[in-house]
Structure formats: structure tokens, C-alpha cells
Amino acid sequence: MMHAAKSATVFVGMLALSMSPSAARDARTATSNSADVRTSGMFATAPLAAQSLLERSPNLGGTWTAEPGVLHFHFLHRFQATGAPARKVLNSPTFLLALGLPHRTSLGVRYATNSLVRTGFPNEWEPFARWQAAVQSSESSGAPVDVLVHAGWNQAAASIDGEVTMARSFGGVRVLGAVRAFSNAWHAGSARGAIAAGLAIPLHEWVAVAGDIATVPGAGDTDPAWSAGIQLRIPYSPHTLSLHASNANSTTLQGASRGINAVLWGFEFTVPFTPRRYFGSRGETAATAPADAGDIAADVTMTDRLLFAPDTVVIRVGSAVRWTNTSVLPHTVTADPDKVVRGANVQLPAGADPFDSGNMDPGAVYVHRFTVPGTYRYVCVPHELAGMIGVVLVQP
Q1: What's the CA gap between 119 and 186, in Å, rounded?
Q2: Kind of pairing between the strands at 320-325 and 296-302
Q3: Whose C-alpha in 209, 216, 307, 317 is 20 to 30 A from the C-alpha of 252?
Q4: Which residue, among 318, 274, 311, 312, has the nearest Cα to 297 in the 3D structure?
Q5: Which comes out higher in pLDDT, residue 42 or 231?
């Protein structure tokens, strides 16, 4: 049970770190004149940056790469109960830590503390690099599927391992396929390959069911690896949770390619962490004269549910919007791609200047006048990965 205690300690620590609000600065009523436009994304766009489990099945890594500067921590814990006379619970934790880099790449490592990849060698490390080679797009010049290339070194098997994953979304249904290669499969002295396929079917904005199967072609001495589970998004947070069953002991490339003669029950919890939320200064927005009350065309509140309410407002050009932080958490109103986690969540028209409220303490008010017609998309920086995104439609 020592593994379980250590795993729980790490899990709780990372969860507390990821959920704590960023340090609040002095917030004040301010307004700025700009001609920029940002359009707000749907809630479903943010989880890609957070490596949503709703986009994949339990044993497949999917096609994610972390956004630059975002650190991902995943805690996966599987266990099985032995029969009489021991009636013992065997724990099999796997940890993942990955850092997002430019050009849709990530570097990371998986660590399994009770691996069965190599007999008598329970500590399995897999440092890896990931590159998202293609992103599915509806545009005629875009890719028809997502493509992810994963390369790693399995220290337990002393093997160079690789995987190419392809995935396509049909409506909300996500179909995945993967091809894997191992230079020294399970430390047996020979190269092998594996193929895998998976499916994720959404039932709700926050719920999906998923499953997968992997096999080693031509290997009669190995059982296929499978998994099936319920994938959950934690409402109003950047975290996702998987509750599942599998016969795979770990989720390294080799660990997820060969099953054992037992059913393991478990969960996986994902924690994206943005260091710049906690270290360094975001800078303050210069205050100017507040807008006249008659200029306020719409009011937006910032809530404890990590929402802009309403999330979309329509005003006339030259009018202003007033944001009020009614929650107990600090929030921001940020339409600056250089200050957000995912630049695609912010969009400005030609000639428009970015704007940013800075951190707003509870009760703070921010006013911004819109002088250029168009669609403005903005985010709350501390809660961007939780989907806290808003839209202002400015009509001529």
C-alpha cells in the first residue's frame, strides 16, 4: 500500500497547486480606447489545451500537445484485488509530466511504479517527445485528420519506442487509431510492433464513454490490451477525470500494448498548470478617465462558476461594456494573445489594439469602450483553461 500513499500525496499536492487562484493585484475601474476585436470560443475548445480525456480513450494517448509554457501532470492509478488466501490489493500508479513547447511540440516523461513490462523491474520510465504533425480542419486546404508523432525511450525494456496516432472527429464522436514500434519489446531482445484503435462518444458537454483495444500482430504469446470507461470533465475547471477498467498495467507505449490475465480498475486525473500565473508579473493596464454612465451599453458579471454572464453581448460602435467581479476569486478581462495560454482564444480585427484589465479583485469594475465594429473575443487569464471566455459583438 506504500505506492498508493505516495501517489495520493503527490496527487493532492498538484491538485491544490493547480486550483489555487493567482495572486491578486490592486484592481480599479478603468477604460481604454481601442479598435480591436476578439471572438469567444465555445467551452469545448479549451480542453484541447488542457489535454481533455473526453478526446481520447483510457489507454490511448490521443493527439494532444501542451500549449507552450503549460505544464501537464496526469495521475493514473489502477488496482486489482487478488483472491484467497492473500486477498491483497495490488496498486499500479503511472505518472505523466509534460511541458508544452513551440511548434506544437511537447517534452515529458511517464513513470510507472509497479510495471510488468520487464519481469523483476517494477520502475518503468519513458521520457518522450510529442509533435502534432497535422490538425483536422474543415477548410479545403486543411488536414482531414489529426496526426501525432510520439517518440520515447523505455528505460525498463531498454527500447526505443515510437507511435503515430491519427484521429478524426465526426460530429462529437472521436475515432482514434495508432501504430506503434518497439526496438526491444518487453526486454525480450526482438523488435515488435502493435496497432491500436479507440473511440470516444460524448453523452453530454461534460461526459463521454470511451474504449480501445491494442494488439501485437502475429504474437500468440500476448493478450490484447483493452480499456473502457467514463470520461468526465470537472465543471468550471480545466481538469478531467477518467473512471475505467483495463487489463493493461501501465500506459507507456509498451505497457498499453499487452494485456494481463486480470481486470484492473482505476482512474486518471489531469492537471494543467500554467507557471506564469504564479511567477512573474502580467503588468497593469494604464487607467484613463472612466466612461460616462450613458456610454455603458452592456453589463457583464464575473461569477464564482468561472463564467462571464452573459457570455455574449451586442452593442453599437462607440459604446462601452462594464465588467464587475461579483465572485470571491480574482478574474481578468483580457483580449491580448500575448497574455493568454492559447492565442486562438483571442482574436482582434485589423487595426485593433489589445486590451487587458489586469487582475480584478472581488468587487472590482472594468470598463472598455469599443471604437471599431466587429467581434471581440476575450478570456479570463487565470480561468482560461476552464473555458471562461466571452464575446462582444460590436455593430456599426
Answers
A1: 9
A2: parallel
A3: 209
A4: 318
A5: 231
Q: Region 25-40: what's the mean pLDDT?
A: 33
Q: Give the Cβ contact number of residue 136 at 10 Å.
A: 15
Closest CA to 36 of 355, 383, 295, 391: 355
Half-sphere exposure of 130 (CA within 13 A, CB side): 27
* CB neighbours of residue 141 within 10 Å: 5
Residue 369 and residue 291: Cα distance in Å, rounded?
A: 8
CA distance 337 to 135: 20
Question: Is the pLDDT at 291 greater than 80, yes or no?
Answer: no
Query: Helical H runs in the chain?
Result: 2-19
CA–CA distance from 275 to each of 22, 323, 373, 387 (Å)? 10, 26, 35, 18
C-alpha cell at 11: 496527487
Those residues whose C-beta lies under 8 Å from the C-beta of residue 22, and which sit 6 or more positions away, are: 277, 278, 330, 359, 381, 382
- What domains are defined for the chain? 2-17+48-275 (2.40.160.40), 293-395 (2.60.40.420)
d(CA 124, CA 283): 43
Among 204-208, 212-216, 288-292, 310-314, name the one with the lowest average pLDDT.
288-292
Residue 337 to residue 299: CA distance in whole angstroms: 24
Contact 212, 58 (CB under 8 A): yes
As a whole number, mean pLDDT of residues 170-183 equals 95
Task: Measure CA 9 to chain center.
Answer: 22
Average pLDDT over residues 135-153: 86
| Cβ 306 vs Cβ 388: under 8 Å | yes
